[in-house]
Specification:
With 165 residues, this protein is of the alpha+beta class. Helices cover 23% and strands 24% of the residues. Helix 2 runs antiparallel to helix 3. InterPro entries: Chorismate_lyase_/UTRA_dom_sf, Rv2949c-like. Pfam families: Rv2949c-like.
């Protein structure tokens, strides 16, 4: 398809390899290489594969009341608290909490969410599901109370940025 003033007849299409993409400006890398999921964006920014460490995962029979948050659907709710960290570096980048209406998801996605540590965004994208996210509440500092896995006095906490997804 050609548009008025289109010069595409003088262009060739080329698929960029991962190596080619890594040589581009970081902002352009993000636009080209990601699908909008946090883990893929973070992978480019950190230049490291990102893994999910599930800190706490609970199933609630009904949606909890959360101030300043729209009422969640009448559904069982999966509450998942995670740390996103670099595979090679081990550096902790983001602490996140997600509240997921379980009864609105296909069984296959629900099983992967409860039985694996796959990133939520990647599961949704792979399943071609549209996702709605509340505006995140952002904080910066040490890992939230109760989320740390390190023994006291072992290492200082890595600063984290995160919030509710």
């Amino acid at each position: 398809m050609h548009w008025a003033g289109d010069r595409s007849e003088n262009m060739t299409r080329t698929m960029l390899s991962d190596i080619d993409i890594r040589e581009l400006d970081r902002d352009l890398q993000i636009l080209l290489a990601t699908n909008g999921t946090l883990t893929r964006i973070l992978k480019i920014i950190a230049d490291d594969e990102i893994v999910v460490e599930i800190i706490n995962q609970q199933i609630h029979p009904t949606a909890p009341e959360i101030p300043d948050l729209e009422r969640l659907p009448d559904s069982r709710i999966l509450q998942r608290q995670t740390i996103l960290k670099g595979l090679s570096s081990g550096e902790e980048f983001i602490a996140a909490e997600a509240l997921i209406a379980m009864d609105l998801l296909p069984t296959a996605i629900l099983r992967k969410l409860t039985e694996t540590d796959h990133p939520i965004g990647e599961l949704m994208v792979a399943s071609c599901l549209e996702v709605f996210k509340e505006t995140a509440e952002i904080w910066e500092g040490s890992c939230p109370i109760g989320w740390s896995r390190r023994p006291k006095g072992n290492h200082p906490h890595t600063p984290l940025r995160g919030g509710i997804i």
